[in-house]
Amino acid sequence: MRIVFMGTPQFAVPSLDILIKNGHEIISVVTVPDKPKGRGQKVGISDVKQYALEHNLPVLQPVKLKDENFLNELRALQPDLIIVVAFRILPSVIFDIPKHGIFNLHGSLLPKYRGAAPINWAIINGDKETGVTTFFLKEKVDTGNIILQAKLEIGENDTFGEIYEKLSGIGANLVLETVREIENSNVKVMEQKEEHASPAPKIFKEDCRIDWSKSVEKIHNLVRGLSPHPAAWTTFQDKVLKIYTTLKTSEKFSGEPGSLIKEGRKLFVNTNDYLLEILELQLEGKKRMKTIDFLNGVEIGNESKLI
User: Fold this and answer.
1) What is the per-residue burial (b if ≥16 Cβ within 10 Å, else e) of 152-175?
2) Number of domains into which the chain is organized
3) pLDDT for 198-230, tens place per residue?
């Protein structure tokens, strides 16, 4: 079966890798154009392109997916199947190109968390379970018929980064299983139930700001749902303070939400119910560090507060 693989970030690499290692024919990899990265603005390539180059796979990098030259290249490849993992929204003009259709790997148990940030929102909302889904594409995003799903438990201190990595591996196995079912004409699909659907919209900077008047549970979930990227933030002494790792406590404090308490080498912040311990953080202009190192460089007094 001739396969075109579409993807961009590290999340997609294990899926491409498992297909290659199991002898599937990848006739082309489609990914985003190269772009400047970091402070030096050196031209960077996507993780998927990096893998493709290392394995001598042909790469297409269209700026616009409706570009006629790109569409003609895609048609000329005559793919049997297109697989999409963490790429872009495809125009419907592509849907009819592969003989066996297009399926996508999504980082949630659809129809829950349709959208750009399913893993983040599952953790932010305090879910105890998430997973991955393969489904055939429809014009409306993330609404196609479900092929396969796999579940993953979310621990109370698991971060976005940890769940992202686990789902990437689980998703790769699901992609391989889905391809085998399509090859064997053994696919059984299930329609998504609209009444169970929920959104997972793109996350913006203001979504990441911590509201210390909320409960310790909600703040802890926000921090881990955004760690390590884009990171929950607050302000300390008029500087942005990113918080990466926290620990819930059952200890109450009568101070104002956001007020800080230093106890030896530990740092706590008051919420609207219990204290939250801060374990890892990054002050504007500094590197990410453990709280003990942070406390060596700042003074925490009675009036110290996070806003």
Assistant:
1) bebeeebbbebbbebbbebbbebb
2) 2
3) 999 999 999 999 999 999 999 999 999 999 999
In order of 16, 85, 143, 179, the CA distances from 172 in angstroms are: 8, 9, 21, 11
Let me know whether 188 and 216 are in one domain.
no
- State whether 89 and 182 are in the same domain: yes
Q: pLDDT tens across 158-200, in order?
A: 999 999 999 999 999 999 999 999 999 989 999 999 999 999 9
In-domain check, residue 303: no
Question: Is 18 in the same domain as 99?
Answer: yes
Distance CA 53, CA 61 (A): 13
Residues sharing a CB contact under 8 Å with residue 213, sequence separation 6 or more, in sequence order? 257, 258, 271, 272
HEC per residue, 36-99: EECCCCEEECCHHHHHHHHCCCCEECCCCCCCHHHHHHHHHHCCCEEEEECCCCCCHHHCCCCC
Q: Which range marks the domain in which residue 185 is found?
A: 2-196
Read off the pTM: 0.94
Give the domain CATH number at 103.
3.40.50.170
- Considering the domain architecture, whether residues 90 and 173 belong to the same structural domain is answered as yes
Which DSSP helix (H) or strand (E) runs through 220?
helix 216-225
Are 191 and 209 within one domain? Answer: no
Spans of the chain, pLDDT less than 70: 38-41
